Amino acid sequence: MGGRGKTVMVLGLIACLVFALVYYGIRLTADFGKTDTQITAEDAAKRLDRLYGDIRVTVEPTVKGSIDLDPAEVGDTLPDISKFPVSVTNSTDSYVEIFSSTEKSGTGNDGWLNEVAEAFNAAGIEVDGKTVSVRIRNIASGTATDYIRSGKYMPDAFTPSNELWGEMVRAHGVGAEMIASRLTGNVAGIVTSKSKYEELIGKYGALNVKTLTDAIAAGELAMGYTDPFASSTGLNFLVTALETFDHSNLLGEKAVQGFERFQEGVPFIASTTLQMREAAKTGMLDAFVLEYQTFQNSADLQSGYVFTPFGFRHDSPLYAIGDVSPEKKEIMRRFAEFAAGAEYQRLAGEKGFNGLDDYRPELSAVDGNTLTAAQKLWKEKKNGSKPIAAVFVADVSGSMDGEPLHRLKESLLSGQKYLGRENSIGFVSYSDDVSIRLPIGRYDANQQSMFVGAVNSLTAGGGTATFDGIVVAMKMLQDELAANPDVKPVVFVLSDGETNEGHSLNDIRGLIETFEIPVYTIGYNANIKALQSISGINEAASINADTEDVVYKIGQLLNVQM
């Protein structure tokens, strides 16, 4: 064969080889390397079965444990108060300690009250001939209320975001005398994308909580809000929504039915405002709740969203808590007067406060007993007609030995009191292999007993195959959905975040997205970034719970999600 013929033959072989590589490369990519949006439900089911078949799975015999049917006592799980930092230290022996909500006792634009307190402490103000000062402790309003109501720690004073928390403290028999109705101005609101805002205005003529709840019930709006047990804005929104359904009786049948219809259309309830903001960044939500001060300090939101105020004002009232002395009350009054000065109110404005001062709520006052009952109603009705099916996935590898595993057990045994009886749960543990310790079943007393027995039987050792554990949990949930298609699947992973065996996140990322299963992660002295990468796929929460407060945090998480 001549040189020209050989050249043609070589080129032909190369062309065939390239075609084969491209063709089979595409086929391999189609099967194993699709992007998340390319994976169909059928492909995901096949891949799940294939991955599950690669894992050594043991079904352990169930073991019953002793259960405690008494309701959860939040005071039993609260960490030592030192977990919540003192942001301003008192400078004299005559002082008051103030629990302050986080939007004004943090750092930067969230540090207004700290700056006021430091100036107050340096001013040499005297009461009864003694120089006085204040100590500020940075703590969220809902958590602060838990400490006060439980009696685990009592500050001298409390400045929550709004007056609802003061009413709840009073309803539990704790004195809460209002010293000042306002330290600085703020409001809660609904932040709506401009396009959705214009669409709703065009249809309903106005945007308020009533039109929003109607739009959500009609499936026209994807909105998220925050936990009303922990968040001031979340509690405010819950009460406001109930009032729109029946302003004469927030807890009546009409209000309950309206709330159930509304809640059916809510795709997302966040544990914290930070989690809500992160979910909003994905574009998943058309609207979400936020305080105006935070909105003012978020340039990314102002360019693409509209803020609509709702409910009660968030004017940071100041209360004297319990049986405090007249001297301490006078220190509080002097501090409130100091904060109300023009210089410090101007500073508040620079940090985003005191906007929308013309806003006046249309709601009438709500007493603390009604607020507590509204929270209980929310807990019972928040999942609508769809119960939860959850699988807990516990890391029992060698790195969890000792204190981490002890705290994991403690948090699960405490947190299981927050699991609603209408829900179903299963339990999986993993190290090198995966063990199904409790098949999914309705959370009755028998299932609860077996859950407690499974938790108590955990021991640590071996490698860490985190994603194998998640695969098994997803397989269990898909089988449950086949039998009960109306349940909402959820996975809770409890781990230190270190994975050194089994499948990788890339192997299962598409499955998590396609199946739309939120994977909540709780880290124990953890590689929190690794856990966040798992939870971030479907905007679930990732909790960095150290050994001091994991029990309380998991209780909060389960209270919201279960």
Automatic annotation (TrEMBL):
- Domain (VWFA) spans 389-562
CDD domains with a match to the protein in the record: vWFA (cd00198)
Which is an annotated Pfam family here? Answer: SBP_bac_11
Q: Which residues cross the membrane?
A: 7-26
Asked if the record carries the keyword Nucleotide-binding, the reply is no
Q: Does the keyword Transmembrane apply?
A: yes
Keywords, alphabetical: Membrane, Transmembrane, Transmembrane helix
| Protein's recorded name | VWA domain-containing protein
Source species of the chain? Paenibacillus soyae
